[in-house]
Amino acid sequence: MAEPSLTIEQSSNSAMIRILGELLTRHVGDVQTAFDRVPTGMTDVELDLAGVESFDTGGAWLIANMQRRLEAGGATVRITGAKPAHAALLDTVEQHLPEKLEDDEDARGFVPALIALGKYTVSGWRSFLSALAFFGETLVALVLTLLQPWRLRRAALFSQMESAGLKAVPIVALMGFLIGVVLAFQGAAQLKQFGAEVFVVELIAISVLRELGILLTAIIVAGRSGSAFTASVGSMKVQEEIDAMRTIGLNPIEALVVPRVLALIIMMPILGFIANMAGLFGGALMSWIDLGVTPGMFITRLKETTDVWNLLIGMIKAPFFALMIGVVACWQAMQVRGSAESVGQHTTASVVQSIFMVIAIDAMFSVFFSELGV
Fold this sequence. Notes:
The protein has 374 residues and is an alpha/beta fold. 71% of the residues lie in helices and 8% in strands.
């Protein structure tokens, strides 16, 4: 076993570097320091590999890394004496060396910031086009499922309805109840100053039925079910199960996306209604305790002052929230690439984007209904 060694014959502006022995991965730690100490600043360097007995990827990396460093210092590097197999391996390693990471100091300034902004803009535009195409594919699959109901995977649909809907009832009901309690308590504290405690009923009813009930339900579903969709489908993507489905002729959109999106569309109005009722119950209970507004008076005021449109507006929003949450969650799952870390990153992105889209859609609906005078 010939240990690798390196000798340098240096003149004023040129050098001859000879490498001898077995330049293998197991010896990299022994000779890396010698390679790193090769001086730069020369104009002509000849690298003689005639004495290299054995050569593998680790050794090729050492040579390629040293060559890149010398060339960065202004030298012209010539490799001589290499066996054909060694030269081919070295050429392959050189082609696949990672780009040098720029230092933080080099990344500062207007031009690097402008370049980074351009990259983010292009990446964002491509992501938008990808999401838009996925949204279109999902809509087409949903329409085909409605026109041809036998295409629907009923077992998957009912399973997703149970996990995304039925199992979410406790947390949604608790959230609605607490929101009603908070609204009644905070509203009472303000309305008492004006002797208008009875108007707390309108405050609770309009806030919960029109906005908060369905909006907070959608946020909970995005964080609970949307993240579960991304994690489960993303794990299938990592394990190449989705590629296997395509290989045997199954459409992943129909098999994985449609049942999840349809389950959310069906269950979101139900969950929103439960949140609304729980919110009204919590508000009525707190009004009774804090303001002395009896349940009978609360119900009477609710009937007299609250239009059914307040409930319908919230229910109209529900399917749109559900569609957006399901599409964003499944699209992020399809973007997963190759590792469990990627699954985590896209799951986080799924929750953030879903909540953002829910709030944006709610704002658009608010403007729309305001313009209609509803």
